[in-house]
Amino acid sequence: MGLHTPIDSHRAYHSSAVEILDLRHFSSHHLRPLLEQETRVWADMMSWDYQPSAEMILRYIDSKILPGYAAVEADGRVCGYSFFVYEGSKGVIGDLYADSALPSPDGAQSVEQRLAMHVIDTLQRSPGVHRVEAQLLPHKSGMLSQPFLAEGFRQFPRLFMLLPLTNGRRPEIITPPEIEYRRWVEQDYQPSAAVITTSYRGHIDSEINDQYRSLNGSLRFLNNIVRFPGCGVFDGHASFIAIHKPTHSIAGLLLCSRVREDVGHVTQVCVLPEHRGKRIAESLIGLCTQELRSRRFSALSLTVTEANANAVELYRKLGFETQRKFDAFVWEG
Known about the structure:
Elements: E1 13-14, E2 18-22, H1 28-46, H2 51-63, E3 68-73, E4 78-87, E5 90-98, H3 108-124, E6 131-136, H4 145-150, E7 154-164, E8 179-183, H5 189-199, H6 205-208, H7 215-227, E9 233-234, E10 240-244, E11 249-260, E12 263-271, H8 280-294, E13 299-305, H9 309-317, E14 321-332
Parallel strand pairs: 5-6, 12-13
Antiparallel strand pairs: 1-2, 2-3, 3-4, 4-5, 6-14, 7-13, 7-14, 8-10, 9-11, 10-11, 11-12
């Protein structure tokens, strides 16, 4: 997390009943009820235990180093918040949420739109920031488009898909003669990052997440999903590698995290271009679901960019169902 200071963070933005203030004026005591509500939303919408992420956010709020904004009602109650982080010359909007019970005219969508406007304004005017990324998983596609599109962001609709494991179809595990499968281990860090970088070269997802564009970025991406709880708790037993036996190199990989005690989430699946067409991705998903079923998991989820038609078609063929459509936004100054 960078040490930039949000632009004009001292200002309060007024509307009829809600004002927007610097998030660092508040403590976890003020935000906890709102994050408890948001945790229930993640559980209901996506079978996702957001509690570890919420607790991490509250710790950062108490440290007074998390840049962002809080929406505050006249009685002092915090009814919405958003935060962001700096990664070098990039700003990432980490979360944006408002109380779903807010009455009109300051309804949740209105408050979220205003929070988005202030975060966008701050990031775009922060010295040295040339790129801003946001993925708004709990928000229906199109709900918050206006403030992003008005400021020059590109919009990428994405799908949240779910495969029931109790009675869903079982992806087939195909093993070509030159391929073998094994579980991911710590020593796979560096070669896995190289595979991710190569697999996403020229891919639409590298437009959404610029970490895929370089080896160092892919290493940071791996570090985030393996060592931090933002995308659940990394599950090494349900994460697999496809090895090309003649060269002893990684041909493809699937990484999985637990987002609830009985729900897995695919945080990464990719196959090198020269090994595509061998049903390796399908087999990696098959191995993952086989492992999760053996531990009585109820479901496996993933996200995919809607424009990535081949991947969407594969997931649907394997039994994944679209639960919701959300947006990713990218701005490059």
